[in-house]
Amino acid sequence: MEHLVSLFESAPKTLVRKARQYTRKLWVRVLIMGLLAFAAVGITQVVEYIIPETLAKSVTGSSADRLLDIIASAMLSVTIFSITVMVSVYQSSSTQWTPRIHRLIMQDRHTQNTLAVFIGAYVYALLGIVLRETGIYDDEHAFVLFWMTVAVVSVIVIYLIRWVLHLQGFGQLIDITRQIEETTRNQFKERLAQPCLGARPFHGDLPDGTRTLHAWESGYIQHIYPEALNALAVEHEVELYLIKEIGKFIFLNEPVLEVRQKGDTLDWDALCEAVQGSLILGDLRTYDQDPRFGLLVMGEVGSKAMSPGVNDPGTAIDVITRIGRILSSYRDETETTPEDVLENIYVRPLDPAKLLRDGFGALSRDAAGTLEVQQRLQQTLSGLMRHPDEALCKAAREMAQQELARALEAMSFVPDQVALIASADPQVRPK
Question: CA end-to-end span of the chain, whole Å?
Answer without folding.
Answer: 66
